[in-house]
Specification:
By secondary structure, the chain is mostly helical. It has two domains: about 100 residues, Orthogonal Bundle (Lysozyme); about 40 residues, no CATH class. Strands 1-2 form a two-stranded antiparallel ribbon. Helix 1 packs across helix 2 and helix 2 crosses helix 3. The mean pLDDT is about 80. This is Lysozyme. InterPro entries: Bacteriophage_GH24 (IPR051018), Endolysin_autolysin (IPR033907), Glyco_hydro_24 (IPR002196), Lysozyme-like_dom_sf (IPR023346), Lysozyme_dom_sf (IPR023347).
Length: about 170
């Protein structure tokens, strides 16, 4: 199987979203609200490489400095220290410890998270497309004779609507 660079980046972005959600979850990272952006990024990388269970183990009951002290312990495979894992954990630790000019306060992080959510919401809206040709061919007009109040959906929305209409037939 061959994929383009664009497809690879889209797949990585989708994967990162999953790992970011673990780092944002206080059940996995109880100190998530106090993390700097660098610390957050380092823990996302850690979670991507070591898994959500190891992220939870690393962070459970620990302060931010304690988490930093323990990141590099995750450098083994089947009990053997691997040079590649040592390098990766060192890079994550360096990122985790990187100083920001000015770290966000909890209120600023909340406001920033709200802004990110709004941007994501707007991105979803802008991905709306008119009825695809296959939909119009199978079901007639793109607004189904005025029965659809907003005749633009995401492509996935059009597919879901088509399934529902087929089931009703």
């Amino acid at each position: 199987m061959t994929i383009t660079q664009e497809q690879a980046e889209a797949m990585l972005k989708a994967d990162m979203s999953k790992y970011e959600s673990y780092v944002n979850n206080p059940d996995y990272v109880p100190v998530t609200a106090q993390l700097t952006q660098y610390q957050f990024d380092a823990l996302v990388s850690f979670c991507y490489n070591c898994g959500a269970g190891n992220l939870q183990t690393l962070c459970r009951g620990r302060t931010i400095p304690e988490i930093a002290r323990h990141i590099t312990a995750y450098n083994k495979s089947s009990g053997t220290v691997l040079a590649g894992l040592v390098r990766r954990r060192k890079a994550e630790l360096d990122l985790f410890n990187k100083k920001e000019e000015e770290a966000m306060t909890a209120a600023e992080k909340t406001a920033f998270d709200k802004l990110v959510s709004r941007v994501e919401e707007l991105e979803k809206i802008t991905r709306k497309v008119p009825a695809p040709k296959w939909f119009v061919k199978e079901f007639g007009s793109e607004d189904l004779g005025g029965k659809i109040s907003d005749p633009s959906f995401t492509l996935e929305g059009w597919r879901t609507l088509a399934v529902g209409l087929r089931v009703r037939k």
